[in-house]
Design brief:
globular
């Protein structure tokens, strides 16, 4: 959980709010989003604390000869760990999203300050053949990569999964070489998973892993593939996939979740 970055964003937003040339609507929305993220972080921290408490309780029961831990206990704990991991991933993505938007606002502020110090000369448009001045040509409409990604992610956060898939697909089609192209593919898979479209989720995660095998979302995509197999009751494939996650990404949160899932299934590592 990137807590330092989250609270750093709050400070940056406060600094920008004192700059009169920043659009108030943008600041108002970002300040609201920062407050929402802080609330999410508190909820995730509470969930993590509860999960750790339950894990300690299970460890104490395991150490006691008078009590035994059932497979149902382990399965329930694995579900809780998976849920916390998912909430953490979403919160981190929202923090990164806010960071990108605040960086953009900071650049806008700097550009406006530079423009005010050195105003650009206004050039008259060339005359037409009839001697009349031609109207100034407006800027060519260009797709805004950041706005497109943020809109798609906002739809995902609100549960508008069909709109989110469409937005992320459009983003990937228009900006396949961008730094967030692999993230867009990952969230397409998450949208399908959240809708219960597990075969489509597996295909989306496979697409990410084929296009960007070294993506920072690779571990999460491989884990969600295993969970999607479990949801479809494809236990054998799920076990193979979870073992792959555990061995390929040792020490990661995904590896820990995979280990707990395998334990709940009674499958050796």
């Amino acid at each position: 959980m990137n807590l330092k970055r989250a609270f750093g964003l709050v400070a940056v937003a406060a600094l920008l709010s004192g700059v009169g040339c920043v659009m108030p609507d943008q600041l108002s929305q970002i300040q609201k989003d920062v407050a929402d993220v802080r609330q999410e972080l508190r909820r995730v921290q509470e969930d993590q604390a509860q999960t750790l408490s339950r894990l300690e309780a299970l460890e104490n029961r395991t150490a006691s000869s008078q009590d035994q831990v059932t497979r149902a206990d382990l399965a329930d704990l694995a579900v809780r760990i998976d849920q916390v991991g998912r909430e953490t991933s979403i919160s981190d993505e929202r923090i990164n999203d806010l960071g990108r938007r605040l960086d953009g606002l900071s650049q806008d502020v700097e550009q406006l300050r530079s423009s005010s110090r050195s105003p650009a000369p206004v050039m008259a448009p060339p005359p037409t053949e009839g001697g009349e001045e031609s109207p100034p040509a407006g800027p060519a409409a260009q797709p805004d990569a950041e706005a497109l990604y943020n809109t798609a992610y906002a739809d995902f956060s609100k549960g508008n999964y069909a709109l989110a898939v469409s937005g992320f697909e459009e983003y990937y089609d228009k900006f396949p070489d961008s730094a967030l192209a692999d993230n867009a593919l990952y969230w397409i898979g998450e949208c399908h998973f959240s809708q219960g479209n597990f075969p489509d989720a597996v295909r989306a995660f496979d697409r990410l892993l084929e296009q960007s095998p070294r993506s920072d979302k690779a571990a999460a995509a491989n884990l969600k593939k295993g969970l999607a197999y479990l949801e479809q009751n494809q236990i054998g494939q799920a076990i193979v996939q979870l073992r792959f996650v555990h061995s390929t990404y040792p020490g990661s949160d995904e590896a820990k979740i995979a280990r707990d899932k395998l334990t709940s299934l009674g499958a050796p590592l």
